[in-house]
Structure formats: C-alpha cells, structure tokens
Amino acid sequence: MKILVTGGAGFIGSHIIDQLIDNGHEVIIIDNLSTGKKENINKKAKFIKMDICNPKVKAVFKKEKFDYVFHLAAQIDVRKSVEDPITDAKTNILGSLNILENCKNFGVKKVIFSSTGGAIYGDAEIIPTPETYPEKPISPYGICKLSVEKYLYYYHQIFGLNYIALRYGNVYGPRQNSKGEAGVVAIFLDKILSGKQPVINGDGKQTRDYVYVEDVAGANMLALESDKIGIYNVGTARETDVNKLFSILNNNFQNKIKEVHGEAKMGEQARSCLSFELIKKDLGWEPGVGLEEGIGKTVLWFKNSRV
Predict the structure, then answer these.
(1) In terms of domains, do 135 and 153 share one?
(2) Most CB atoms closer than 10 Å: which of 17, 143, 181, 271?
(3) CATH code where residue 50 lies
(4) Which pLDDT band, with edges at 50, 70 and 90, does 307 fall under?
(5) β-strand pairing of 110-116 with 26-31
(6) Which uninterrupted H or E stretch holds 207?
(7) Are residues 94 and 186 in the same domain?
C-alpha cells in the first residue's frame, strides 16, 4: 500500500515509518523539518520537504494517490501554543484541514491521527482516564487536537472518510528532540550528558503516563489494519511522578546526578494517566516495554548519538 506520513522526520513519525517499511509498505513523507531531522528518515522512504499548510500539498496527493495517511505533523509545544495560539491554530487546525480536504478529494481510505491524551482531558478526576471522560483542554494545543478529532468525525459522517485518532500519553524514547519536542526524559538526558544540572519543576509530584515510542508505533500499525472507527488512548495506565522518573534515570548514571528542584510552572497539570482498556479490547494493543527498560534503551541511544 502507498502511505503518506506527515511529520515523518519527527520523533514518533520516524518510528512509525520504520515499522511501515518493515511491513512492506511504500512510504512518502511530508515534513517541513521545523522540529524533525533528516537523519531520522528511513532510507527506503521518499521525502518531500513541505509544510502541511502549503497549497502544493494538493499536487502531492494528486500525483501519489495515497491509500492511507498517518497525520502527525503539528506544532507540538504546549507552551508555544499558550504564547502564540494563532500560529498554533494555523498549523494544527488549518494545516490539518488542508490534509483532510485532500484525503477526501483524492480517495484516501483512512486517516490515522496522532492526538493527545493529557492535553485533551486536563486534570481528570478519574485515573486512569477512559475515552468517555469529558474533554477539558486547558491549552490551545489541546483545543486544536480536539478540534481535529471533531473534524475527523465530520469527514467520516459526511464523506465516508474512515479514521482512528490515537490519544497518546507522554511518549519517550530514542530520537526524541530535547529542544523542539519538550519531553522531560529527553530534556533531562540532554542536560545530564552535557554536564549540566537537570531541574525538577516544583515538588516533582506531578504525574504523567510514560509510554515507549515503539509501543506507540505498534498501536499505529494496529490502527492501520483495523476496520474500527473512533478514538483510542495509547498509554500504560501507570502514573509516574517526576521524582520517580528522575530516580530511574539516575540509576543509569550510578545515581551520581544531584536531585535539584526549581520553581513550579504556573498552570502545569497535576496528574495524567490513560486507560488502555478500549484499545486492548478493540485493537488488541497493550504496552510491552516497561518504564525501567524503556529508559535504559533511551539512555543508551542518547549516549551513542553523541559519539
């Protein structure tokens, strides 16, 4: 099958592409390299440097005649979305609409959309949080992701475009960009390996659901194969606070890194943890890599990437 991956030079997208190519699919990438890196791209994939807002996207769809689309390209920094919600919406809503219009017009069978769990649910009262929990995003980033989910529902109902939206927990692993993608694991590792002091925001008791990137890519493969339509969490149902995360990281450095706390970030979410019961039932997915193992693999990659 011929498959488009938007944002395919990025952290998660590049892992999805590796699995798609391993499964024998033909892959084309659209990425503007704003946060993605060319070195992430599988050599067997065709790369087109282009922004998803560009009207020339239409010509790519017309020429390539895609069967399926994985849509990951986005402005992914929650803090940037707060600072500049207009730019965030231009990329994350209007750029997504540009992709969806072309999917509709050129006969794409299905869209697999990379959404967000934590940023859509906000501080949920039910932990682990199921897909039925009310969406209460408290950032423009979360609002945009939820908006695209609603557009997907519209395109399915009115035009028959099939879709699955995957609401990720906090994805971590090899290739994560400590600058552009703002994952705490990557940020801490970058600091440690640069000889700088990592700083934990506030008391460090804020929790997240850390899910390994190869498990996330596996969920995308199952979404591609499934005939289901709808929204699924991709998480571990396991809460880990930042202090515990730091401790696991520190174990990989003989516990030599000092634990330092700084000021709390205003408005930072206190808890986030996703139920994966629905995706297990409908798609047969569950997380396979535990946090300690995943952190170990990630540390090794970050060390090797600096050699």
Answers:
(1) yes
(2) 17
(3) 3.40.50.720
(4) low
(5) unpaired
(6) strand 207-208
(7) no
Would you call 141 a catalytic residue per the annotation?
yes
Are residues 150 and 161 located together in one domain of the fold?
yes
- Residue 298 CA to residue 197 CA, distance in Å, equals 19
Same domain, 188 and 224: no
Residues 176-204 as b or e (16 or more Cβ within 10 Å = b):
bbbebbbbbbbbbbbebeeeeebebeeeb
Q: By CB neighbour count within 10 A (0-12 exposed, 13-18 middle, 19+ buried), where does 115 fall? A: buried
User: Does one domain contain both 82 and 149?
Assistant: yes
Q: Which phi and psi (to 5°) does residue 129 adopt?
A: -85, 125
**C-alpha dihedral, 257 to 258 to 263 to 264, nearest 10°:** 60
Domain co-membership, 76 together with 130: yes
What total number of domains does the chain contain?
2
Catalytic, out of 68, 121, 133, 141: 141
On the question of pLDDT at 56 being above 60, the answer is yes
- Across residues 36-52, what is the average pLDDT? 97
Q: Give the predicted TM-score (pTM) of the model.
A: 0.96
Angle between helices 96-105 and 140-159 (to 10 degrees): 10
Mean pLDDT within 186-211: 96
In a shared domain, residues 166 and 250: no
290 in the Ramachandran plot: left (φ > 0), alpha (ψ -120 to 50) or beta? beta
Same domain, yes or no: 126 and 17: yes
C-alpha 193/C-alpha 276 separation (Å) is 33
Task: Give the pLDDT confidence of 6-31 residue by residue, as tens digits.
Answer: 999 999 999 999 999 999 999 999 99
Q: Does residue 163 fall inside a structural domain?
A: yes
pLDDT digits (tens, 9 = 90+) for 71-109: 999 998 888 888 999 999 999 999 999 999 999 999 999
Owning domain of residue 109? 2-171+211-235
Continuous segment of H or E residues that includes residue 91: none
pLDDT at 191 > cutoff 80? yes
CATH of the domain at 182: 3.90.25.10
